[in-house]
Specification:
The chain contains 6 helices and 5 strands, in the order E-H-E-H-E-H-E-H-E-H-H. The chain starts with 13 loop residues before the first strand and ends in a 12-residue tail after the last helix. With 168 residues, the chain is α/β, with parallel strands linked by helices. It has a 5-stranded parallel sheet, with helices on both faces. Helix 2 (45-54) runs parallel beside helix 3. It has one domain: Rossmann fold, CATH 3.40.50. It has helices spanning 22-34, 45-54, 87-97, 118-121, 133-145, 153-156; strands spanning 14-18, 38-42, 61-65, 103-107, 126-128. The longest helix is centred in the N-terminal third of the chain and has 13 residues, at 22-34. Strand 4 (103-107), helix 4 (118-121) and strand 5 (126-128) form a beta-alpha-beta unit.
Length: 168
């Protein structure tokens, strides 16, 4: 594995990794830190949304799992600013908050199982689990080098126009 980050690409770049699987989160975070990135970790959407709302420095990339644990029985008001949602909802909320404009979605779901999320998964760079750390790093570097997404891009513009490749 090539652990050398391209000169300047990882300098001062912060990546938020969101995955309920501790081993997947560890592999992603450790690899990204080895490459020189600052890594924030969240085990679910509620924690990720709290980090996005409170982190003072820019977050350059959101790397999130599509299928996060669904909300349990919650005795909270509907005004909860940090609800438990799936990865596609985190992406939409993140872009709306203007906290980051670069996103990678990952999942172990097959292409056919992801059809319910087609509107978002067709327009966001995607990693099919399981993936190699080399594949992840290729996509991370490609997404960081590509034009950022906007709120409108997440639902209407194909990433093919941004020269971002899908992996998996």
């Amino acid at each position: 594995m090539n652990t050398q980050a391209p000169i300047g690409l990882s300098l001062a770049k912060t990546i938020l990794v969101v995955d309920d699987d501790p081993s997947m989160r560890l592999i992603c975070a450790k690899t990204l830190r080895t490459e020189g990135f600052t890594v924030l970790e969240a085990e679910g959407s509620s924690e990720a949304l709290k980090i996005l709302a409170s982190h003072q420095e820019p977050i350059d990339l959101l790397l999130t799992d599509l299928m996060l644990p669904p909300p349990g029985l919650e005795f909270t008001s509907t005004e909860n600013p940090y609800p438990r949602v799936h990865g596609h909802d985190i992406i939409q909320r993140t872009l709306a908050m203007k906290k980051t404009s670069r996103v990678i979605l990952m999942s172990s779901l097959s292409y056919h199982e992801r059809k319910a999320y087609q509107t978002i998964t067709d327009h966001v760079p995607f990693l099919q689990k399981p993936f190699s750390v080399e594949t992840m790093m290729q996509l991370v570097h490609a997404v960081l080098a590509a034009a950022p997404l906007s709120c409108d891009d997440s639902t209407t513009t194909s990433t093919a126009k941004q020269d971002v490749k899908w992996y998996g």
